[in-house]
Amino acid sequence: MHAGGMHAEIREAGAGDWPAIWPFFQQIVAAGETFTYPADLTAEEARGWWLLDPPNRTVVAVDAAGTVVGSAKMNRNQAGNGAHIASASYMVDPAHGGRGVGRALVEYSLEWARAAGFRGMQFNAVAETNKHAVRLYENLGFRIVGTVPGAFRHPVEGYTGLHVMFREL
């Protein structure tokens, strides 16, 4: 998959990929600017949160040198009568940002959700301060359907909103 001039292969993530995902996962979560995950998650706890079992899916984006540069997890957003809406989360290694990896992962997750028969994709908690992600999601057809005021405690900006974003498939 070509993205922003960079060729990134996206493939299923296995347990063997966790040692490559964990360093940037830990860096992103510890920064506390985008995810609502506890900053002190252990590697083992985090692995359980990120590497999902089928029918859910976790993938990695790998560059031409074989380096894992990003990852995504995809799952149903709710159970039961809400199980027809998908959700997803994305992490790109900050050392490899700005090269289209995130866009490639979002596009891949949308294709996965469509093929799996989901009717839409919902993001439950997008920090409104995460301007880059909000712009990317909007460019890919998502819209902000609501914002929970003050629901995210950003380490620099303080209490800020969390967007709920959605797009139909």
Question: How would you summarize the topology of this molecule?
Answer:
Layout: E1 2-3, E2 6-7, E3 9-12, H1 18-31, H2 43-50, E4 57-62, E5 68-76, E6 85-92, H3 101-115, E7 120-127, H4 131-139, E8 143-154, E9 158-168
Parallel strand pairs: 6-7
Antiparallel strand pairs: 1-2, 3-4, 4-5, 5-6, 7-9, 8-9
Can you describe this structure?
The two termini are 21 Å apart. The chain has 4 helices and 9 strands, in the order E-E-E-H-H-E-E-E-H-E-H-E-E. With 169 residues, it is of the alpha+beta class. Helices cover 27% and strands 37% of the residues. Helix 3 (101-115) links the parallel strand 6 and strand 7. The strands form 2 sheets. A 7-stranded mixed β-sheet has the order 3-4-5-6-7-9-8. A two-stranded antiparallel sheet has the order 1-2. Residues 1-5 have low confidence and may be disordered. The longest helix is centred in the middle third of the chain and has 15 residues, at 101-115. It has helices at 18-31, 43-50, 101-115, 131-139, and strands spanning 2-3, 6-7, 9-12, 57-62, 68-76, 85-92, 120-127, 143-154, 158-168.
